[in-house]
Amino acid sequence: MSDITHLDRRRAAGAQTRQRIVEVAESLFASQGYDAVGLRDIVRVAEINSAAVHYHFGTKEALFLHILRLRAEPIASARAQAFQALRARGPLVLSEVIEAFLRPALDQPLHEPRRANYAELRARLSGEQEPAVRALLAEIFDPSTRMFLAAIRDCLPELPESEIYYRFHFLLGTMVYAMANPGRIQDLSLGDTNPFDLDEVLAHLVPFIEAGFRAAPLPAARARKRPAARKKQP
């Protein structure tokens, strides 16, 4: 019995150490960026043995990808469930499609530490070109995202395919900025806004995004036009 109790304690201690590593690493990656944080920094702040990081995760990249998967998979899953619920209710409504996509990403108070860390980290990743990171985000998000792209096409059959991709691209940029909430709206409004209230944010954000999708498409002639190449001087 004592051996079992000792084993249980070791497992519990190991789980606590693993969780501590994840929380500290996520906070450091969010505030400083992936490249600026080393395993030594994580060990120092977490106040753990350096061997613990290698035991639980192996490398910094593996730890980073674990954190991304941990935070991103629930968002993708919630989106897929929300989409299926919309399909089951009947004909798709564009505003509802947009909200179902946005809500899971914004669906925790932005001032809650873990949520704020992921929001800031996601903002940093918006310009990330690291192949492993892009591949992981594509693996997690692409299946549900393609469901929503198809739904938007169904709602806006007159919109050219390229326009849908561009407008969805802008939706993602707006969403990531809203997730990160750098504080500009509070400053500009002199505190007369509450970007921590999910329903208030969505009440303003969804119509804004919908209007962008419903805007008249770029005329075909202008869409095809490219700047003329400059002639080389003799």
TrEMBL record:
Alphabetical list of Pfam families matching this protein: TetR_C_30, TetR_N
GO molecular function: DNA-binding transcription factor activity; transcription cis-regulatory region binding
Domain of life: Bacteria
Keywords, sorted A to Z: DNA-binding
DNA-binding region: 38-57
UniProt cross-references to InterPro entries, sorted A to Z: Homeodomain-like_sf (IPR009057), HTH-type_TetR-like_transc_reg (IPR050109), HTH_TetR (IPR001647), PsrA_TetR_C (IPR041586), Tet_transcr_reg_TetR-rel_C_sf (IPR036271)
Domain HTH tetR-type, residue spans: 15-75
Protein's UniProt keywords contain DNA-binding: yes
PANTHER family: BLR6905 PROTEIN (PTHR30055:SF181), HTH-TYPE TRANSCRIPTIONAL REGULATOR RUTR (PTHR30055)
UniProt name for this protein: TetR family transcriptional regulator
Organism: Ancylobacter mangrovi
Lineage, opening ranks: Bacteria, Pseudomonadati, Pseudomonadota, Alphaproteobacteria, Hyphomicrobiales
